[in-house]
Amino acid sequence: MPDPDTFDFVIAANRLPVDQTTDDAGNVTFSRSPGGLVTAMESVMRGREGAAWIGWAGETGEPPAPFEDSEMYLVPIGLSDDEHVDYYEGFSNDSIWPLYHDVIVPATFKRRWRTAYERVNQRFAQKIADLAAPEATVWVHDYQLQLAPAMVRELRPDVRIGWFNHIPFPPVELFMQLPGREDLLWGLLGADFLGFQRAADAENFLRSCRRLLHVHVRGDVVQHGDGRTTRAAAVPISIDSHDVYELAHSDKVRERAAQIRKDLGNPQKLLLGVDRLDYTKGIRHRLKAYGELLAEKTLDPADVTLVQVATPSRERLQAYRTLRGQVEQTVGQINGEYSPIGSPAVTYMHRSFPREEMIALFVAADVALVTPLRDGMNLVAKEYVTCCADDGALVLSEFTGAATELARGSFLCNPHDIRSLKKTIVAAIDAPEKERRAQMKRLRKVVLDNDVQKWAGSFLDALKAAPERPAS
Ligand code: ADQ
Helix, strand, coil proportions of the chain in percent (round to 5)? Predict the structure, then answer.
């Protein structure tokens, strides 16, 4: 790939798609970074000409030089140890993250964190301004970079700026708690187009602008005093569904899926949960419901088993360490009380897996439990319906973005209500095969018709056309 000085298409996200690790001997290796943003954007970016991805490479200190990986030109941004603590772990993940996810755990606010957040956003903005070709398209991602759009606008008024929020945008009554809330809204209003997972998120944002900035909002467009405009609308993210479907139907993955079932003692029903180990994902509620179903003998551990994959996440934050302890204790309790010899009631795995292994798990599972307390979208729901057997079943929380598209055809539940959760799990297990097949057919069609390329195309069309709606 050539190494031009500037790029027509620049994306900026907190993380690069690969993480750098340096061992004690100084050897540098790169591995894929976890999470939904990378899963989605990697397939959009790969092989795109004249494009650069700006982000943190996963180690503090001096950033490595720009490099190429998987046909992508990657430009690392440096973070000091303090900035990692204050900007990333602090303001991004201990203030904004809980606040934007309905304060499932309390948000913490520290002035030092906000200063670092501003400083790092300015660093991203400067790098974007340096790398963007004249009139380039700039696509900023997610909650860690909400000030960057206005900063880029200041430095480079010629470029087109879009921002996409991978997580929910909260109701104004919650958003108002955030220190510096007006600055944050002005930061976002530096963009021409703001994409959200759900229409409700875009509406929450527009309501916050009206209420806190007193700006004029017409339909889904914010009118700035200076004649500029920003449009905010829903563009629900998706997965590379055709690729995933093909992989799921390959002999290798099918064989692996059969082997997984065999290793689990060929259960009549294999239930599956796959999540980052995050309090938003509802893992504790899910385990509680499952444990009670075993205790009441509604489910028999000789017939039913649960595989829970919990990817390590944000392990330096106390709330995440506490959650890990609680989840592991509950798994131990359930297994101690209910597992027959040689086949655990819960198989718990706290590590990352290669893509093919994840897909084999989706193929193997009879029922997926996607029960977050709040989730921007949840790609696991879309991955499961793309991969699973034709008679699979999806238990889906109403509090995911995915529920907007996948409500019809899934077993919807309110995960805060353990009784509702238990009833829905049992309904999914017991549903007649014909019903499950019809539902899965519908769900799969939705995800195959709306893949990640279509999402990226819709976002970029909306960005180009803003403040108008794109044709079609
Ligand atoms: P996340 O909160 O990270 O994403 P999600 O959408 O479920 O959540 O995506 C997780 C991705 O990681 C999936 O592709 C999944 O298969 C993969 N994964 C999970 N565990 C894994 C493991 N152990 N090994 C390997 N891969 C694993 C954020 C928002 C979401 C939003 C996405 C995309 O919180 O709401 O859907 O961004 O916008």
Answer: 45, 20, 35
Indicate the helix (H) or strand (E) that contains 229: strand 229-234
Model confidence band, residue 4 (pLDDT cutoffs 50, 70, 90): low
Q: Whose structure tokens read 């131990």?
A: 332
Encode pLDDT of 264-314 as tens digits. Answer: 999 999 999 999 999 999 999 999 999 999 999 999 999 999 999 999 989
Please, what sign has the CA dihedral across residues 49, 54, 55, 61? positive
Q: Is 233 in the pocket of ligand 1 (CB under 6 A)?
A: no
- Ligand 1 center to 308 CA (angstroms): 14
Give the β-pairing of 132-141 and 160-164. parallel
Please work out whether the CB of residue 253 comes within 6 Å of at least one atom of ligand 1.
Answer: no
Give the 3-state secondary structure of 344-393: CCEEEECCCCCHHHHHHHHHHCCEEEECCCCECCCHHHHHHHHHCCCCCE
**Closest to 345 (Cα-Cα) out of 297, 392, 300, 286:** 300
Helix (H) / strand (E) element for 290: namely helix 283-295
> What distance in Å separates the CA atoms of residue 239 and residue 364, rounded to the nearest whole number?
19
